[in-house]
Request: fold
Amino acid sequence: MFIRSKTITCFIIFGIFCFIQTVSAQEPVMNYIRARVQEVSEVHTKGEYPMQQAQVRLLNGPNAGATIDIQNELTADREDLRIVPEKTIVLQHIERPDGSEVYYFQETFRLNHLFWVFCVFLLLVAFIGKKRGLMSLLGLIVSISIIVFIIFPLIKAGWNAFGISVIGTFLIACSTILIAHGCNRRAMLALLSTCITLICAIVLASVAVELVSLFGLGSEESVFLKLDPTLHIDPKGLLLAGIIIGALGVLDDITTSQVATVDEVSKANPTYGFKQLYRSGLSVGHEHIASMINTLALAYIGASLPMFLLFSLGGGAPAWVTLNSAFLAEEIIRTLVGSSALLLATPISTFFAARSFSR
Reply:
């Protein structure tokens, strides 16, 4: 009798365990739906912020064409979270295990306007840049494809982020220069100069990151990637990869410009030898460097302007503590390594061009 009762108890416990596992496995399913706002009204609630009542028409999903009512709380003057009539918005559609559905407003739908801005840019490239501009755009597409379809998947798969990014950077350099400028003497000299300068930038970045004791955890995004148990990414390698890819973005400009300058000077002065061509190329390169360093620094600052402004407030901390923070140190190293690569690229590309075009 005791054995039978024990067996029944075990079956009951096992059944309860299976039921709990089944219920816990039934997680809510979330989809994203586009909707067109038809009517909006604001009502003040007892809480701190007012509430928007909106009537929207679903544009896709299983209930496309249906009209539903949603609520949206206006939080702390966030204009980006305000629902506006006659606008297309993005909704979170959550299907609960019990069969009920709920919709939440996420943000404004922007892809249609982004498409028209891109079309204007494409027209400017075709009208002003002509064939060379379109080939440059093709090189950009190839470069982005290498990053998205080669570098990112391999890093997510657990490969060394720094090593993969270095290889990918050289692939990007080859594709960008050869596609945009063609396979000619100028392009080959620019590619050679870019690759040599990239090697110098890699060494500089590695030494600087180790010297300053950076671990790639200066931003919230890096911390989230580090805490994700499904990813095995080295934050320091990711930081070095970002520095190298960022430096490559400006190296193409200065190496191709220097090689083209020396080539044109040699055509205008056929009697010039190596020294005259090198001196003339450096004269133009110095002016180019002065503007490019400023452009590079402002590009990095502009990309993280809200974060820089937040750090400038200080919160009562001394200035040296703010400058000592990991985030600012990473941005400073990023700017200094990129600027150093620019400085090295000028004499390197000018040297190879002068040796090649001298009579």
Q: What stands out?
A: The chain has two domains: 29-109, 124-357. Strands lie at 29-43, 51-58, 67-73, 88-95, 101-108.
